[in-house]
Amino acid sequence: MQLLPEGARRLAAWCVVILLAAGVGWVGIQLCAEFRTAVVPVLLALLGTALLGPLHRRMIKARINRSLAAALTCVAVAVVVGGAVYVVVAALIHTGSQIVSSLREASRSVAEHFGAAGTSLDDIAANSQDLLAKFGGTAASNVVSGVSVVAETLAEAFLALLLVFFFLRDSHRVAGSLRSLAPRGTADVVEAMARRAYGAVEGFMRGTTIIALIDALCITVGLLVLRVPGAVGLGALVFVGAYIPYLGAFISGTVAVLVALADRGFVIALWTLGVVLAIQMLEGYGLQPMIQSRQVQMHPAVVLLAITAGASVAGVLGMLLAVPLTAAVFGVVHELRVLYAPEGPEGPTGPGTSGFPGGPGAPAPSEDA
Questions:
Q1: Which residues does the annotated region (Disordered) include (predicted)?
Q2: Where do the domains of the chain lie?
Q3: pTM over 0.85, yes/no
Q4: Closest to 233 (Cα-Cα) out of 88, 131, 128
């Protein structure tokens, strides 16, 4: 005899599923935090593999050995990333004091018009270096300070680079490995979900990098034309902030306007605001629809919630990883809806097959040396 009606039983079943999923997710987060030094390089390597996959596949099509192609790709990314980090750090070091002094001057101007509201901004600008030092200390609270932090960071970066090499070289074996590990009768579903998740991450990384580069160049040129101090450093800040959707653009744009207000006056600040808004509108209505893959289009509220959750779990690193991981989850959910739709127009080998290493349409594996 069934004591509960059908609706109540369904609700109870869904509650159990949600609780189980939440419990598994919490345990997974705790394990990732416990094994952070191993998990972070793997996640960074997956993002790097998604970004460099198209270049590696082009080399394979050019009949270059898989191992050699992976090695050349890793060397190229090491040079590019190292050069980019050097340029960003050098620009921020050379223009950082100028930006801080401009922010302090802007706070005084705001204080003259709005009273106490500008005083707090002045305090933040005056103590910005101390705030950055405290923030860096908080981020490194779980590791030994000083040289150990630098050594651990370099070790994680080197491990991530090695993992990128192996992921690229053996990418054609991923599908077979997943099918062999999947439970009986679920190999096609598991493979389709993995392809969709990888395609979403690949589209996000490639599109975000291109958009970040275009935004940084346009804003840097605009600030140079307006003769805003620290234009190169502000452009570098825009490039880095582009990997944190919405929030990064808001912060970098606000800093640029405040610097222009302090050093060049109200009129130039308005022009700077116009440049920032114009480029953001170009990004939102032009670049993202053209460049960003449709597989990673998510509602802004979902993106902001993902960034907030990532920041609460892993700080700045969590903010950077939150959106691509959320995109992968959305890709998996979309693929499940397609697979189990009553009369879906796409089957298990529909959109999920695009972009995944070793899938249909990917280059045939070449013999390793």
A1: 344-369
A2: 36-137+146-168+188-340
A3: no
A4: 88
